[in-house]
Structures are given as structure tokens and as C-alpha cells.
Design a protein that fits this description.
By secondary structure, the protein is an alpha+beta fold. Among the domains are: 105 residues, Immunoglobulin-like, CATH 2.60.40; 152 residues, Jelly Rolls; 113 residues, Immunoglobulins (Immunoglobulin-like); 164 residues, no CATH class. It is 37% helix and 23% strand. The radius of gyration is 35 Å and the shape is elongated. The chain starts with 16 loop residues before the first strand and ends with a helix.
Amino acid sequence: MLGASNHESGSVRVPKTLVLAAVLAILLPAAALRGQSFRHAGTEFQARRPISVPAGKSYSIVVTEFFHHGEIDAAGRDVVVAAKNRSLAPTRVLQLGPGDFCRLAFQTIPGQSNYEIFYGGDPPKETAPPWTCGDGLLLETRKYKHCNLHRLESLREAFHSAEPLGADYVEHVEHSRNPFSLKPEPFLSRYSGTLHIATAGTYGFLTSSQDCSFLLIDDKEIVSAPGRHGPMRWANRGSRKDVRLSAGPHMFEYYHAAAGPDAVMVAAWEVSPPEDKPRPVAIPSEAFRTRAVGRLPAGQLSLRTTKAVPDFLVDIVGDVPLPDHDIPLVGVRLHDNSPQALTLAAKARWDFGDGQTSDKLDANHIYLHPGVYAVKLSLKRGGRTIAITNRVDIDQPSLTDRDPKKLHKLDDYLPILETYDPRTLDAVGLRQLALAYEAKALAIEAQAESQAAEERAKAEAEAETEADAKSSRPDKRREKPVDDPRAAEAKRYLAAAVAAGKVAFLEPSAAEGAEDLYRLAMLIGPMARDRLGEFQLAAQIWAAAAQKIKAGELKAQCGIEAADVSINDLLDAPAAKKLLEAATTQLANTKTGPVAAKLQRVWGDYYASTGNGKDAREAYNRAETIHGSTRGYIERTAWRGARARSTEEFIQQRQYDRAAAELRLWQSEFPTEKIDGYLTLMYARYWVGRQQYAQAIAQAEQLQAVNPDSPYVDQLLLLAADCEVKRGRVDRALATLHALLKDYPGSPLVPAVKETINRLQTAGSD
């Protein structure tokens, strides 16, 4: 982000405000530009920005930041700074990127206060004078490169050969993270400058770091903390290294490496240190003459063919983390900052780089995930439209940038998110959008559950009396759930999540990438299947994902999921067979792992659904062998009982998505439970709860094929007969009941079966 930087207490803030130059198409004749020479150092540059040092400011170094709209090359070779007298100033390109961000520093020239930054085009033929100023403390960070953390030379060599991340002038050697990145990842860093000693004497230096650090003065190692370790919490006499320094300038360097996600780098000193316990303080900024470094904004952009140039501001105003996910939504506000003469009677259009647009001059936007986006501002005036694009790094604000009074909530973002066109979003964005809708649904459900729990507790408290506390206490498991209007609202957000995500698979879409598409399908597929009961849609999503994804195992896994729905939810075994055959081919070289186990398990369901009990049993056994559960008989029995109780309670409470999750975990852990039959019985009860009676009947038929001697088959057949009655097929119900009496004459359910037969026949004769 481009804007003001804060360097108090040695901290570097990632700037929050982006000043992006947008070009208005006002093409001028060459004569109008003759006084605006873009030729310097033997090169015709494409762009320039003025910058002025205010009167009374005696900066020896000026740091500025701007966006270069793609004009500066990756090495930063096509940039010069010239004073008004056309003298070139010594210049350092401190940082290029992310995106089109540029941070540069230049030495001021005595007697000159007005400068121009020229960039774009061929590298200059004349070189600027070398950098000679010793003011300021420069921090550079680079990507981590393997090195020996116990040796300075190894670390120094790694640093100089590593890829740069960022650089800026700072106040102190004192940071607790990489100030140029929010990612908790390893990095290398170096502080460099001139240490100005006012009085000759003895100085004691200390370093505290995570991990290694080495402090050098005049290229001599003074104090170090080599190796991997945490920071030093308390200074002791042995940790301080004393050195005699003469008055005047001394070259200062501090190398540091963070080999893990955490980082600390702190250097401190004591002047004329006493013999007792050290009492270090941060090396004062005055010792590096940091006040001589000024931060000034770059002025209005001009191009070789452009007279007037508008600006706009981009503020990162906050973010909203999504539950159990590490990718946040990022809130951004874009302000037009153009001269009024340019925007008068002009139509503005923002293209945010993520497929979304706005025609408001000042716009609020929510980025669904951090990244570098090509932000484009177009101004249309009359019949002419001119636009410029800058690649802008969008990321969540760091913790130190957050204003507690302006914490964002998901509800703040939803009105904007609901306007997004899913067809233009990438797969990561679609998943984030679906997660945002799901988070809202979960929040509504949690609120409803919390209130229901409070009401139950209140009812129990009122019912408990000394006389009948036990008998009058409500049984939470047997309570009949009460419809809550909030359930419909939660379902609406879940439907919105599925509606957005399915676009990637069922409509023309910008979503690509095998891994991202797979993760999207695995989010919205179960949501459609188990939470919304949209079985056909779930099968379509997974089947389409299997078609769109090219990677073998991910493609196969989506096909297996589609086959599972086809067999057990849609009762369409022929469709499932084609999907399973394709997945088997794709996994020809995959014999182990959860995907191979699930393939065999779903093949088992297919064979069971087609009446092939022998092949079904073999497939279930192969699945369990591949899965390789380590649970013993006792643990397995306890585990099964816990799953069964949870499933029953969820069915009682009509939380069918949670019941389905329990059943699927159960079947994944122990595929052969479909042979035993108890799991099959629980699946049938689940389907009855959802009033999907044909699916419940199909479970009974599967068990009859797989294990007609199961101790649960009679319960399943009685349940299947009841489902036939609910479907209005009494004749089928009677046939099922008579078969039960014939095949299982010793069942304890025989009296209930006979009573049911008598009742159905009596009702039929009336």
C-alpha cells in the first residue's frame, strides 16, 4: 500500500494508502509539450513525477513511494532523479513490488529543493553519481536461503544472493517480524548505516534475536547470537560485548536470519557500561542521524503525451477473518483524487482486477482474498475513454495497523458481496464467497442454538421442584424440535453459497486450477447434499468437477463423490458405474491411501445396490484393508456406539447434515460395517428422518444382498415396510412383511410384524 509510513520505536508499517496515477486521455500536440522535456541522462523517459523539499527542511536523503503503472523494469534500471538544474542525484531503488509499487531514495544536492523522478523507457546512458551519504539506517529483508546459522560468512553470502523482499530506512534495530510481509515465514535481513559516535569511549553492545544475529562495526564482529534459538529475555554480563570506539563515523551492519515463522531482531547498547548487570537501551536513532532522512510524497504524474493526470487513493480499511480459515476478506475504499476539471461531466469506471466493477467515483470494495490485482480506472468524457492500470498489492492490515474502534464484521461486507457476479470470480474467490455465506449461516444457527439452550435450561429450572424434580425434568433428546424462522434465514445463506460455487462447474466461469476447483467442489458439494438436501445438484457439481479438473487423483476423487451420491441418494446405479470405471482407470497406479479406500467402498455400495452381495463384501473388505484402521475390537465397539448415539440425537433434532457427517466418518473408518448391518440401519433411519423413503428402502435391499443373516436385517425390513406405506404402496409393504415372516421366523419382531399385517389388511378392506 502506498502512503505515509510510521517509523516510531523502530517499527515499519506497511503503508495503507495507495496513490495510484490514472491517465486521462488528453493528447496534446507536440508543440504543447516542448517545454516539458522527458529527456535526461541520454534517454527519453516515459513518465515523470515532481518532488519538492519544503523550505526549512535540511534532508540529506529523501524517500518517496509511488506506483509506476508497469513502466519500471524489474531491475529498476530505468529510473533517475534530477534536480531543477538537471544534475542527476545519487539514487537507490529500495523496493520494487509487490505489483507496481516503487520505493526509492535519493541524496539531495546542495542548493536544490526541486527534483523530478523520471522513469520508463531505456536505461539511462549517463550514470548518476555514487551514493556517498552516511545518514540513516537502512533495513533490507530477503527471502530465506539455506545457510549455516552459526557462521557470519555463510549468512552474509546467503543474504547477498537471496531474492529481495523489501527495504526502507528505519529508526532502530528493533523488529519482531518481517515488516515487508505479513506472512509468517523464514527470511533474512540486514541493517546497514553509519554509526556516528559523538564521544570516544567504551560502548557495550548486545543482541537479542530469533534466530541468529551478528552485529558488526567497521566490518568486525562485535557481538553475536549464532544458531537457532529464541530471543534473549534478560541481559546478563556475559551477553554484552564491550568495544572502544573513537569519535566519528563507524560502519555499522547487523545480519539476522529467521529460520522459522517467528522472528525477533534487536540491537542495544550501553555507553560507558558499568561492571554490574547490563542495563541496555536501544541504540538511539540520533546515532544513525535518521532525522536527516525525509519522507515526501511524489507529485502529479505526467507522461510524454499527457497534459493532465488524475489520481485516486486506495485505502485498506480492514479485514474479516473467516471461521477456521486463514484467508481473510479485505475491505478497501477507493477515492477519486483527480483535479475537479478532469472529472467534471466525466463517467468513471473501476475495474478492481477480480472481475468486479463499479461506476461510482468513490467506491467501496471487498477483495475475497489477498493478492496483487490489476486495478483500472477509466474516465469517459464525451466519446473518449482513457484508462490506466496499476497492479496493486491487497493484503490484510497488520496487527499494529488495526484500529479497535473500526473492527469490521461480516455483516458490513455482505451487502457488497451479494452484488458480485460469480461468473467473473476465480476459484479461490468463489470458495471465499461461499465460505462467507456459510459463516453467516453458521452464526445464525449458533445464535438460535444458544437461545434454545437457554430456554431449555429455564424450562428445566422451572420444572424442578422438591417433589417431582426427576419426573418433570424435560428429556432434551426426546424433545420435539420447534421450527425456528432463523433456520430459513440460515438456509438462504447456504443456498447462496452453493449458488455461487456451482457456477465454476455448471456455467461459463473464470474459475480455473485443479487444486482450487477441487477445494471448491469439496466445500459446496457436501453443502448441497447434506445441508440443503439437493442431491441431484450435488451429483451434478461433483460430476462436472471431475470433467473440468485434469489432475488424476483430484479428478478421480470428484468422480467417486458423484458416484456415491448417484448410488445412495439418487438410486442411479448405472450412472455411478460409469463414474467408478473412470475413477478406477485414473487411479490405476494408486493402491493405497484414503482415495483408493473410498473407491473400493463406493464400489461396494454399487455392488450392494445391484444385488451382487459377493462382490460387495469383497470391495468392503478391500476398502478396510487399504484404510488400515488400528482400532481394536473394544475400541471399535465403543467408537461405533458413540457414532450411533450422536447420529440418533442429530436425527431427533433434525440436524441432518451433522447426522450425515457422523455416518460418513463411521463408514470411512470401518467400511465393513456395511456388512455387519448396524451402519446400514442407521443410514435408513437417517433417510426416514429426511422423509426420503425410497432411499431408506434401498438400504434394506442393500443389506439383504450383502448379508441376509445380519442381526439388523429384520429391523430394516420392518422399517422398509413402513416406508412403503408412507409412499402409498401398501401392497409392497405387505409383501415385505410376509417375506420377513417367512425368512426370519425366529425374529423377536414377529408379533409386531403380524400386528402390522393385520392392521394394513383391515384398513385395506374398509
